[in-house]
Write a structure and sequence with these properties.
elongated, about 250 residues, 2 domains, alpha/beta, Udp-n-acetylmuramoylalanyl-d-glutamate--2,6- Diaminopimelate Ligase, Chain: A, domain 1, 13 strands, 6-stranded mixed β-sheet
């Protein structure tokens, strides 16, 4: 089966409602390809490796979290950007990208999907545009929580735990990707631990001084789940082929 490109775009927009968010780049159709779509490839980032994989699979569309265009970019299409766009245009492949709205969807988004895999159901939100999730948790210590996250995601995490005797984690907060700036909001929301993809210099001091553990589990690793969940859901709904391709990224 296949669907008109504009109809597919409309379904993605209806599901994710990107107009609700103040974002860092354009959401929706970023590169126009063929007018009818039967096969979708999803991935985290519109990298050249993902685009080449989509070409190999004869995909009509690529659906990602990190697209090609961001606020403040140099507008010239040269170098790596030219190479990616050139491949998409040469093979008439549509590129759909959804950023914050893909993080935020309450069931299929990055945060909801990460929470599901870690065994948590959010009962509150916090932070900018309420992108952060908070849930009840019953883990004996920050070290045990870090071990659980590490096992589920299959990668080493960075843990900054408060000093003193280990304390149980009763409330956990998380926000995928580069949300280290949400840490103070997580603390204010009553979390005993906060999980995101990255850590910057200030968060280590805040964790030690406030008694709230900080876990950096990888930007890519925490954002692997939203794109295939959304693309797979829409593809199944419309009778389209879908395949997720996970391009390894240590970040």
């Amino acid at each position: 089966m296949s669907i008109d490109r504009d109809d597919l775009l409309g379904r993605f927009d209806e599901l994710l409602q990107p107009q609700r968010f103040k974002d860092y780049g354009p959401n929706g159709l970023q590169v126009e390809g063929k007018p009818t779509i039967g096969r979708i490839v999803s991935g985290v980032t519109a990298s050249r490796a993902l685009i080449d994989a989509a070409i190999e699979l004869k995909a009509d569309a690529v659906f990602v979290h990190h697209g090609l265009f961001w606020r403040g970019m140099d507008g010239r299409i040269t170098g790596w950007l030219k190479q990616r766009i050139q491949r998409l245009l040469a093979h008439d492949i549509n590129l759909f990208a959804y950023h914050l709205s893909l993080d935020a969807h309450p069931e299929l988004g990055n945060n909801a999907q990460l929470g599901t895999r870690l065994g948590w159901q959010a009962d509150a939100h916090f932070g900018e545009q309420e992108l952060g999730f908070v849930a009840p948790c019953d883990v004996s210590s920050a070290q045990a929580l870090a071990g659980h996250v590490q096992q589920v995601l299959g990668r080493t995490v960075t843990l900054v735990a408060p000093g003193g005797a280990p304390r149980p984690i009763r409330r956990v907060a998380w926000c995928t990707g580069g949300a280290q700036g949400f840490f103070e909001g997580a603390i204010a929301a009553g979390a005993d631990a906060f999980i995101t993809g990255e850590i910057s210099e200030p968060q280590a001091h805040l964790a030690r001084e406030t008694g709230v553990a900080f876990i950096a589990a990888g930007h890519h690793a925490t954002e692997r789940y939203g794109a295939p969940a959304v693309a797979g859901h829409v593809a199944a709904e419309l009778g389209l082929d879908h395949q997720f391709i996970d391009i390894d990224n240590p970040a």
